[in-house]
Amino acid sequence: MVRQAMERIVPFVESLPRQPACDVEGAVELARTLVEPLPRTGTPLEELLDLVFRDLAPKSFNAAGPGYLAYIPGGGIFHAAVADLVSNAINRYVGVFIAAPALVQLEANVVRWFAEIVGYPAAARGILTTGGSLANFTAIVTARRSRLPENFFAGTLYASDQVHHSVVKAALLAGFPEANIRTIPSDELFRIRPDLLRARIAEDRARGLQPFLVVGSAGTTNTGAVDDLEALAALCAEEKLWFHVDAAYGGFLMLTARGRDRMRGLARADSITLDPHKALFLPYGNGSLLVRDGAELRRAHTTHAHYMPEMQDDPDLVDFCEYSPELSRGWRGLRVWLPLKMHGIEPFRRNLDEKIDLTSWAAGELRAIPGIEIVAEPQLTVVAFRAAARGLTEPELNELNRRLLERINARKRVFLTGTMLGARFVIRICVLSFRTHRDRVEAALEDIRAALAEMRLSAPR
Ligand SMILES: Cc1ncc(COP(=O)(O)O)c(C=O)c1O
User: Fold this and answer.
1) Cα 248 to averaged position of ligand 1 atoms, centre (Å)
2) Sheet holding 271-274, edge to edge
3) By C-alpha distance, which of 186, 215, 212 is closest to 201?
4) Distances from the Cα of 39 to the Cαs of 1, 36, 73, 461, in angstroms?
5) Sheet holding 424-430, edge to edge
6) pLDDT per residue over 134-186, tens digit each?
7) How much is the mean pLDDT over the chain?
8) How far is the CA of 413 from the centre of ligand 1 (A)?
9) Ligand 1 center to residue 394 CA distance, Å?
10) Looking at ligand 1, which atom is closest to the CA of residue 220?
11) What is the pTM of this model?
């Protein structure tokens, strides 16, 4: 079975750079043709693999390819796929320590390495999750259980108008009414306004509410903006609030000197969300939550049952089920441990530095195109821009830029996405895949210039 799968995986992965950056024409109709009742009889593996590789997988966003400059790119380093095969095949149980002490320890090492990357102390603990959304959820539950009474309906939490929507979802899932979630305006660099945050906290306290949590962003999805984490940490300390940072996108850029400079203050957060399936280039399925005082994470997630084995009291040993909403789960640690052990951290650091360079190069090229306005300069590896033809109203400009985006993407060498920044529709370039190098960012610039020329918005070079 593995051999049969590999016969298809190798050409598929090798062809990623040649595959269209996005090809979903007819994909919805294709999806509808697949609806079928529970199969009563078997089908040969060859046939099923052919269906997936030949017919289905190509009709997608090419999220693992070098032209994927959309949203926040993932990666898909192959080592993790091999690790998944191993961990799923051996199927050991890592929810509790005693069931597989040595394997649990490898995962605990991964969490420790992440803590080292962000600059957390030895008392920090954490978990690997399925993604950033679950990490943000676990952070909010931990903050709620640490800072609020059982009846927490007076608790209010604060984040900027640029925070990822998973934070809002997490707050709702954690039981907070929508009215308790405060959206604080951001400044011209799309960072939370600490002055307005402070004023809102005071106002809420005066109304008898219980402010308990501030969520900062270390790399927003819209523009890659990094909040002033030092200022937020100081404010939270003063106000005795839990300080969580959503660093799902930006966190691993702490491996680079420029990232550390831009995210100064990150280690002062009470908790941090990281997404190895973003800037650590892993395939989808890996997030992480780190908590500076690990005991807080444990307190929020420990329950007991007679049928369970003894949990560990030794501070060096960890029962992950006591730190996480999950009990039974796959051994995710191996998919991070294996690539880090095989290569060490250096190639990851180099790759991330390259992405920062590529983004500032792209921003420089965009700036030089007449009629292009940079709306958000890169803070990490996102740049947002738009065509700004004179004499058009804001809605007309938005429409124009939507059409521009379609034309760029129609060439299928790169896939870019847009977003709204206030009332402005902007086009974003996010460089984060380990497969994206200078040639593909040059292709993006060529396609942007060509699309502008087609729309008679500027002359081709
Ligand atoms: C800044 C930020 N936070 C959180 C998330 C949610 O992470 P995930 O998609 O891994 O659940 C994302 C996802 O794209 C993100 O960009």
Assistant:
1) 6
2) 125-129, 287-291, 271-274, 242-247, 210-217, 155-160, 181-184
3) 212
4) 20, 8, 35, 57
5) 372-376, 382-387, 424-430, 417-421
6) 999 999 999 999 999 999 999 999 999 999 999 999 999 999 999 999 999 99
7) 97
8) 25
9) 29
10) 1
11) 0.98
